[in-house]
Amino acid sequence: MAARLAEHGCLILEGAFTASFITELYQAFDARYGGMSAADMEAKCHQTGGPNKFFQVGGRRYEIAPTMKPPFSDPRLYADAGIRSVLELLLGEIYKVSSFSVVVSHPGADMQHVHRDHNHLYEGEDVGRDLPPHAINVAVPLVDVDLEVGSTAFWPGSHRWETDHPCPEEQMVVPTLRPGDCMMLDYRTMHGGLPNRSARVRPILYVVYARPWFFDEKNFTNRNPLDLPEREYAKLAPDVKELMSRSARLRLLGKG
Q1: Is the whole model's pTM more than 0.90, yes or no?
Q2: Among candidates 180, 201, 213, 231, which has minimal Cα distance to 14?
Q3: Pick the CATH number of 2-252 from 2.60.120.620, 3.40.30.10, 2.60.120.650, 2.30.30.60
Q4: Of the four listed, 6, 71, 104, 232, which is most buried by Cβ atoms within 10 Å?
Q5: How far is it, in rounded angstroms, from Cα 45 to Cα 211?
Q6: Residue 35, Cβ density class (10 Å: 0-12 exposed, 13-18 middle, ≥19 buried)
Q7: Taking the domains of the chain in order of start, what are their residue ranges?
Q8: What are the pLDDT digits (tens) for 65-93?
């Protein structure tokens, strides 16, 4: 599996989580945010006075850093053994959860711009394309993801492309995912969320894992990348605390 992710820049894992656990996560999401319209979320994006938990990432599309209270603090979500076995082969034995967020696409959300989550490292020296991944994004849909509600399209092999390489539509892959499935993306892979043509909100959890020396300042300037309360952090096993140790550092910096 790690070899496929290294080659294509993307890996689909079917049934990585139990459907009942995803239902629990969806119910918690709906209880917190289900009553918010796109206009409500947009208004939250413009609030000032400190790091913001809401950020607009497209038309009627918003990224939220939810407070990781149960069930979002459950290690089954971000410390799954199967996913970690792939991560360790690509990121090394020591890596951190760099961000934990949910992207909400409301009905009528348009096509997101095609992008990488982060540029190649050492781009000026033109060596970044040949390097191993510095971060991997794991997308966990909380609902069925199909052509109507809109999936995340990606371009296989694009993590090795030059920065200005075109993304031909005929090379685009559009996966269909069910609750319990997840998609692992190299942080350099070209991708974009498709339009939401349904009457349903599309929430997808994103957990980003990164090498210990990498932090995504490009995407997380003046907004929370991770919000794990200290009391929830204290409950974790020692190895999971190490995985989530950036949450403790963010609290010390006043960003958590």
Answers
A1: yes
A2: 180
A3: 2.60.120.620
A4: 104
A5: 29
A6: exposed
A7: 2-252
A8: 999 999 999 999 999 999 999 999 999 99
Distance CA(134)–CA(42), nearest Å, equals 31
Structure tokens given for 70: 């149960």
